[in-house]
Amino acid sequence: MISSELQTFIIAATPIIELRGAIPIALFNYELSTSSAFIFSVLGNIFPVIFILLFFEKVSNFLSQKSKLFKRFFDWLFTRTRKKHQGNYERFRDLFLVIFVSIPLPITGAWTGSLCAFLFGVPFKRALPLISLGVVIAGVIVTLISLGIILI
Questions:
Q1: Is 79 within a domain?
Q2: Residues 6+ apart with CB under 8 A from 44
């Protein structure tokens, strides 16, 4: 049997659900303490970020070298994204990344923030702390909403 803490960690590590789902599940289904729910959810949400930031570039380069279709796709994606958003993003990159990850809505979060960091070439040593800060802020917001302290 997997412990409730490990289940919380795993749920928080999954894309889309992330800690937005893990914290309420940990609090109400697993009946973990608020601090345990928060800590295991935050750690679980940050865990895949490390691998996404470290390996997504290697994977995209590998796929681009092996397939013309992937090469065209990644070239199109990088060109389009950078052309469309580079000006504003470059000025507010760090703040944007933290806010984007910290907003507990679908399509925002650590997974998508990691992909944004990759697309805009934010180095690992800069992206990881920014995304982690966003995850902690999102964790506080989701915990406060789950406990009924913030009403939405």
A1: yes
A2: 8, 9, 10, 11, 12, 13, 19, 22
pLDDT digits (tens, 9 = 90+) for 15-55: 999 999 999 999 999 999 999 999 999 999 999 999 999 99
- Looking up tokens 């009403």 gives 151
Residue 121, domain member (yes or no) = yes
HSE at residue 56, side-chain half, CA atoms within 13 A, is: 21
Structural domain that includes position 107: 4-146
Structure tokens, 69:
């279709």
Is residue 152 a part of any domain in this protein?
Answer: no
- How many CB atoms lie under 10 A from the CB of residue 44? 25
AA letter at 149 = I
- The first and second tokens of residue 29, run together, are 């289904």
Q: How many domains does the chain have?
A: 1
